[in-house]
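Deviations from the work plan: none for this task. Representative record:
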Amino acid sequence: GAGVSQSPRYKVAKRGQDVALRCDPISGHVSLFWYQQALGQGPEFLTYFQNEAQLDKSGLPSDRFFAERPEGSVSTLKIQRTQQEDSAVYLCASSPIGLGASEEQFFGPGTRLTVL
Amino acid sequence: KQEVTQIPAALSVPEGENLVLNCSFTDSAIYNLQWFRQDPGKGLTSLLLIQSSQREQTSGRLNASLDKSSGRSTLYIAASQPGDSATYLCAVLSIQGAQKLVFGQGTRLTINP
């Protein structure tokens, strides 16, 4: 596709439910990133993949958060037993190459998660 | 740990004015700095990317400068228009930190007709 796509665009979950957020990066992009943006704040890094390898997950806020990219293209961010503090916009980005490269990251439209 | 600060948090100006948004960062060891625009409820649109070896980049009415040694960047918007109203975010790609962008909290800009 022409850009990074994310689905769903909006998700409402009851507290305690599990959710899965999908990201389709730009075709051929090696690197994929997930960021979390709370209301009125700048995005914060969650995790980074180079192809299928998760090289950095230091930003995941708890063990309820899990991300995967099994075939090196589409990625899924899963949140188990959602809490109200998980309410945020989840942004996905991709870039062409990877570690050590100074590249632009291209962002998707985000998924707005609201936990009731 | 890299920290990025944007001042002011909000800015409201009349249409037609030139304006400057500020961004500062604590660690000068960066690959690049990006300026983004975010409209309400939308994702991020990249405006300008400045490599660490560059001093400025221009696109239309936008000009971004980078002073890496002092840890500062500015985004200059000329002849502002109501359509420029949005939140502007700056982000740095640190050499330490495995490719993650570190963002400021943004400046919410309102251009009044």
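Chain B has a mean pLDDT of 94.
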